[in-house]
Design brief:
Aspartate Aminotransferase, domain 2, alpha/beta, five-stranded antiparallel β-sheet, single chain, Aspartate Aminotransferase, domain 1, seven-stranded mixed β-sheet
Length: 493
């Protein structure tokens, strides 16, 4: 056994991993990476088919990202953001604000004349830096909570304690991270039930899972369920009902928290076109703040139709009050996150020192210089015409390649949004009967893929493909082909 594999088994506790199973075999030890290719300690090569858990945008060992980090390292690696500023972080904050507001103008320009949707005009002007997706959501949650208390229920106005307690609404199947506040917003029992005693209660509302929607009257077809669904937007009706019911209690929701375009950890569940605008319009009408979790969907992952748009919310002209970013922010190089918000929310935390209106929250590595330098280089690459064209090409290649998988009887649904694909495995596509978790269908398929040189990780019975943007068409076709072969082998009756 490789020495690093031995040390890993002896000392390391891995996330979201059943360690009993882990300890039964020699793990793959990644030693090097270049582009979309990873190399292990034995010299074997693999294609990185999930961008190292949805983080890596431009491939490993990218020369421009490497150079940006080296240049910054020659100056300073880190200094505190508590009472001090630095050089690259404000440049990055300004760039993120510029992109977020510029994209809203692009969305407005592309909205058809006479459209029933009006572009939401919230302007994002302030950036709070943190470390990862969980902390980006934690920041938004705390800000929304305290802002609501100060604006909706100021100290001068006496309110019953219950009415003054801000409440949050998120989607069924939501996952927003693993810190206590972020977990409180989640609704995946497998991940969250164990910690129920630590959490505050948040409400959930039906998510638009077209493939398994109880209101979808369509029989299974060999196509994305969004394309042949038969319903009356009952999922939107449920959103309206939930907001109205809470309003009648005298304490409207403080915020609506959502992943735009698709829910990641829920199983790569995409929203049908128009759902996001309708749901957020309802939330706005009821006075709720909008918290967009773009930890996974941000930085071009959701692709066309407007390739110049980097954030999924903007494809439907939705501008949130909080835009939460992480994962791809540094191109997948370093842990860094950002929470963008409005001037109005920022102003609620201004006051004299003795008023203690300060936002009492922070992280040791907030606004880290190396992360900010990598993020600035990442944004330059993303906005370049070469990267835009590559993403457009890969999106088409992925769509074309996925069509062959419909021939497999164990493929129930194929869901693609931009350069994200989720392939749901079932016992029989005609009945949609799922595999039981104990059958480890997704894990068995991914293990078979690894033996054939392609690495990804399942979400239950859903296989995820999310390639780096530097992936070549040939490499992407291999990823899809290996997935198809592995389904046939791993799920052979």
């Amino acid at each position: 056994m490789n020495q690093f594999a031995h040390l890993d088994r002896q000392f390391v506790w891995h996330p979201f991993t059943q360690m009993r199973d882990w300890l039964r075999r020699e793990p793959i030890v990644i030693a090097e990476g270049r582009g979309a290719v990873l190399r292990d300690a034995h010299g074997r090569e693999y294609l990185d088919a999930n961008s190292s858990i949805w983080t890596n945008l431009h491939g490993h060992n990218h020369p421009r990202l490497n150079a940006a980090i080296r240049q910054q390292l020659g100056k300073i690696a880190h200094s505190s953001a508590l009472g001090l500023a630095n050089e690259p972080a404000p440049l990055l904050a300004g760039k993120l604000v510029q992109i977020a507001n510029c994209e809203l103008r692009i969305a407005k320009a592309n909205t058809p004349t006479g459209s029933k949707f009006k572009i939401q005009n919230s302007k994002l002007e302030k950036v709070f830096f943190s470390d990862d997706g969980s902390t980006a959501l934690e920041v938004a949650l705390k800000l929304a909570y305290e802002f609501t208390r100060r604006v909706r229920h100021p100290p001068a106005r006496r309110m019953p304690a219950r009415a003054a307690q801000p409440k949050f609404l998120s989607l069924a199947g939501a996952y927003h991270g693993d810190t206590v506040g972020a977990v409180s917003l989640g609704h995946i029992d497998l991940f969250h039930r164990s910690y129920a005693g630590l959490l505050f209660k948040s409400d959930q509302v039906m998510a638009p899972y077209c493939y398994r929607c109880p209101f979808n009257r369509a029989h299974p077809e060999r196509a994305d369920a969004r394309e042949y669904r038969k319903c009356h937007w009952e999922c939107i009706g449920k959103v309206e009902q939930r907001f109205s019911a809470q309003k009648k209690k005298g304490n409207p929701y403080a915020a609506f928290v959502f992943e735009p375009s698709l829910q990641g950890a829920a199983g790569m569940i995409p929203q049908p076109s128009g759902w996001l605008r309708q749901a957020t319009d309802i939330a706005r009408a009821h006075g709720a703040l909008l918290v967009a979790d773009e930890v996974m969907t941000g930085f071009g992952r959701t692709g066309t139709p407007k390739s110049e748009i980097l954030f999924a919310s903007h494809h439907e002209g939705v501008q949130p009050d909080f835009l939460c970013l992480a994962k791809g922010l540094t191109g997948g190089y370093l842990p860094m996150a950002a929470t963008l918000t409005t001037q109005k929310i920022f102003d609620a935390f201004l006051g004299r020192y003795e008023e203690f209106k300060t936002f009492f929250h922070g992280h040791s590595y907030t606004a880290n210089q190396l992360g900010a330098a990598a993020a600035l280089a990442n944004l330059e690459i993303l906005q370049g015409s070469k990267s835009v064209r590559a993403r457009q090409t890969l999106e088409k290649v992925l769509h074309e390649g996925l069509q062959a998988l419909w021939a497999l009887p164990n493929v129930g649904d194929i869901r693609q949004v931009g350069l994200i694909a989720g392939i749901e495995l079932v016992k029989n596509w005609r009945t949609r009967e799922p595999f039981a978790l104990r059958e480890r269908a997704g894990i068995r398929v991914c293990e078979a893929m690894a033996r054939r040189g392609v690495l990804t990780r399942p979400i239950g019975n859903v296989i995820v493909l999310m390639p780096p943007y530097c992936t070549t068409p040939a490499q992407l076709r291999k990823m899809v082909a290996v997935l198809g072969d592995s389904v046939k082998i791993a799920l052979r009756n």
